[in-house]
């Protein structure tokens, strides 16, 4: 499931609200758990801004960017199997 977030992030920095809108079928609890797991793996980094309302941004680390091409290839393979 973690790869879904890689794909949604790509090389872009995303705010939490953007990720929620991009992945509408995921619960808030699961999204938060997945983001935390990716941060712990060193694939994702989180930047919090001291603003009101709070602003949090996520982006891939160098490690995350390194595996991104492989994740895109896996997506292509999956699409082949979904074809009728």
Q: Could you give the topology of this structure?
A:
Layout: H1 2-9, E1 14-15, H2 16-22, H3 28-40, E2 44-49, E3 55-60, H4 62-82
Q: What sort of overall outline do the alpha carbons produce when their principal axes are compared?
A: globular
Looking at CATH, the homologous superfamily is Winged helix-like DNA-binding domain superfamily/Winged helix DNA-binding domain
Determine the mean pLDDT.
81
**Count of discrete domains:** 1
C-alpha Rg (nearest Å): 14 Å
Q: Which H/E pattern describes the elements?
A: HEHHEEH
The stretches of 5 or more residues where confidence is low (pLDDT under 50) are 1-6
Structural class: alpha+beta
Distance separating the two termini: 24 Å
| CATH classification class | Mainly Alpha
Please give the CATH architecture: Orthogonal Bundle
Count of helical regions: 4
List the quaternary state of the chains: single chain
Task: Summarize the biggest pleated sheet.
Answer: 3 strands, antiparallel
Q: Count the E strands.
A: 3
How much of the polypeptide forms β-strand, as a percent range? 15-25%
CATH topology: Arc Repressor Mutant, subunit A
